[in-house]
Amino acid sequence: MRKRAAIAVLTAVAGLAGFAVPGAYADDNVGDIQVDSVVVNGGKNIVVDTADKTITVSVTATDPSGIWDADFYLWRGPDGTDPYFSADSFVEPNENTTPADCVASSSTTSTCSKTFTFEPDWWLKNADAGTWKTEVQVSANDGSYTDRWAYSTTRLQRHSKLTANASPEPIAKGRTLTITGKLTRANWDTLDYRGYASQPVKLQFRKAGTTTYTTVKTVNTSSTGNLTTTAPASEDGYWRWNFAGTSTTPAVTAAGDFVDVQ
What we know:
Blueprint: E1 2-4, H1 10-17, E2 28-30, E3 34-40, E4 46-48, E5 53-62, E6 67-76, E7 85-86, E8 101-104, E9 109-118, E10 130-140, E11 145-158, E12 160-167, E13 176-187, E14 192-195, E15 200-207, E16 214-220, E17 226-232, E18 237-243, E19 252-253, E20 257-259
Parallel strand pairs: 4-11
Antiparallel strand pairs: 1-8, 2-11, 3-5, 5-9, 6-7, 6-10, 8-9, 10-11, 12-13, 13-14, 13-17, 15-16, 15-18, 18-19, 18-20
């Protein structure tokens, strides 16, 4: 049986009331309802490029009387200028936020899910990248309920790209190779990709006929995200760049560029 969530939208209330810190609200629990698990985007970071990204948040909860409904809020803050910021705050005028759908797996346990859409062409900005918290509200058939302001956290990240090119090709053994590349990431303010400056990126090499890359050196990106370095050509193999990622940008590895050493 499916039930539509009917819990009030506390984010809107908090925003109107001008509360600076959601954490000022203590977690509220009545009865013996239990939250078994909360999963945001399948347990992965939320990575958004320049197009809309829809993710699912789900909670599995248990109560002797059965679960009635649930709701979630993804929020960040405080950051001084925007202390309470919820993805649910951004809906079209007169449009209600989407409630959760609950599906019972037994008489006492249900899993409730809700989708959120992150929209770079509307409200999502570069400053929004980083750690977001998940508020979870669940109520039971007997009136028991729980409200957890920050049950878990997730990372919202700007999608990244990385290229690699080694030249000249082919090359005589012992000569010097030049390896270039560029690290870029989604810019939600301009809806394109821009260079990611001053980031350490590893240059790696894999000998032809093997499966393992070895790090040769680490190079920092330029102000425009460009990478360039040199290395001696000793044997056939693949050259690539590898970026470990940051809290706002996911890790990315360039495709290996094969060089024939003669």
